[in-house]
Each structure stands twice: as C-alpha cells, then as structure tokens.
C-alpha cells in the first residue's frame, strides 16, 4: 500500500484526462454537418465540454494498471461517456426527472426539444457500442466482445435501466423502501456503470481474474459511496456548485439512504465504503494511487 495521491494532484490528473476524453469524443462523434446536423450537434452538446468524466477517468486509470495503450483506453473511456450522457439526457426528460439544468447549462430537451433529446439518447447509446466493437479499440475481437457484453449487462434491464425503473416505482410506492431495496436500486441505477468503468481497463489488459475482480469490487464500493455523496449534495449544495437543480429528491419522494438513515449515518456509511474500496486495491502498486485518491474524492466533492 502506498501513500494516496494528493487532492490537488488528482484534480490536475482528472482535468487532463477530461480534456483527452473530449478530444476522443470530438473524433468519434459525427461532425455537425449534413441533413442530420441538428442531431449531431445535440449529441456533441450532451457529451463534450462539461461534467467530471469520472467514469472515463476510472477506465483510464484501470487500464494504466495493465499497460494498456492510451488510444485504446481512450476509445473505451469515450464509449462510457457516450453511454452515461445518453442516460442523463433521458433522465432529464419530463417523463423522468423533468430537469431543466445539467452541467450548468440547459438540458438537451430545453436547448432543443423532447423528440430530439430522445433521439440523442438513442444515438449515443448505439454509438457507444459501435465504438467498443471497432478494431481501433482493441486488436483482439474477443476483448471487444467482452467489453460490449459487460457494458450491455451494466446498462440494460438488469443494470442501469432496471435501476431507473425501480427509482420511478419508488416515487409512488405506498410504503418507504427498506435499506436493502434502496441499496439494490442505487447499485443498479448508478453503481453498475461505475463498476464497468473500473473493470474495463482489466478487460482491455486481459488481466487475471483476481485483478479484474478487485477492480470491479473497488468500483462497486465507490459507486455506492458516490450515490450517497450525491444525495448529500442534493441536500446541502447550491445549484451553482452542482450545475443542476438541488433539493428535488425529498419533494419527489426519491428513495435514498440519506432519507432512511439521516445525514450523519449516511455520511459514515459512505466513509466505510471508501475504506473498503481502497482495501480492494491492496494488491496494486503505486500506479493505483490515483484510484485511491479518487475514492476519497468521491465523498469530499462539491459537484
């Protein structure tokens, strides 16, 4: 176990990675031209030039543990950001969370219209899988197939989309969800994509099963901590800090561990999850210091 990288070092590394991922997205997404330029412009608006790109950073840092080429890792990081952006665009629609602000700017259905937002989400999802399946992502077709399968499982009916359904059902439930049900909801809706992001570098690097499992478990723990921190931010942060509306969860009847446990117990649980996450990195050397620092950052961030 090595000393965790400083918060400032992590901030710099994440900013540099976000810039690299934006460059990759710029190359991979359709240019704003032709008859479909409205769709292409909205796709780029939804993915580029904003957001923490934490999931992409996880891909890049995971890949670094196994000596994966940067261009290959950036393709996967960009695919994850496309998938994540699609989920946010659809999440923000009036039929879902009905949000007008995302990353400090109007949501896609506000900047354009609802129909365009639906199509943007559809196009970004398929573009993510097209990117993973492309030979440029990895020379081994078995690795590309493994990436596609893992992302499909993480984001589909038994992953992110299923979690969104559970979240919507919880808003109209006659009784509050119990802790186990909330944990499962959040693991599906938020955690599974973070798990994939942490594990993807090991898939790219054809890592041993144990190493791959360690990164997956690390992603699972920080995904759970991330959601608790997000719920705390919704309660305590301003829209200027987060770049989106705050204080909406309680009014909408959202099922959260914060609502069930209260702020202090929820924060303590997030801190335990972070320590458990770092424990899964014990077999990794100093190359994993950014992953250790990211685990701490997840619960200390203000946006």
TrEMBL record:
GO terms of molecular function: metal ion binding; prenyltransferase activity
Keyword Metal-binding set for record: yes
Name this protein carries in UniProt: Polyprenyl synthetase family protein
Recorded superkingdom: Bacteria
Single GO BP term: terpenoid biosynthetic process
Organism encoding this protein: Roseomonas indoligenes
InterPro entries: Isoprenoid_synthase_dom_sf, Polyprenyl_synt, Polyprenyl_synt_CS, Prenyl_diphosphate_synthase
Record-linked SUPFAM superfamilies: Terpenoid synthases (SSF48576)
UniProt keyword Plastid present: no
GO cellular component: cytoplasm
Lineage: Bacteria, Pseudomonadati, Pseudomonadota, Alphaproteobacteria, Acetobacterales
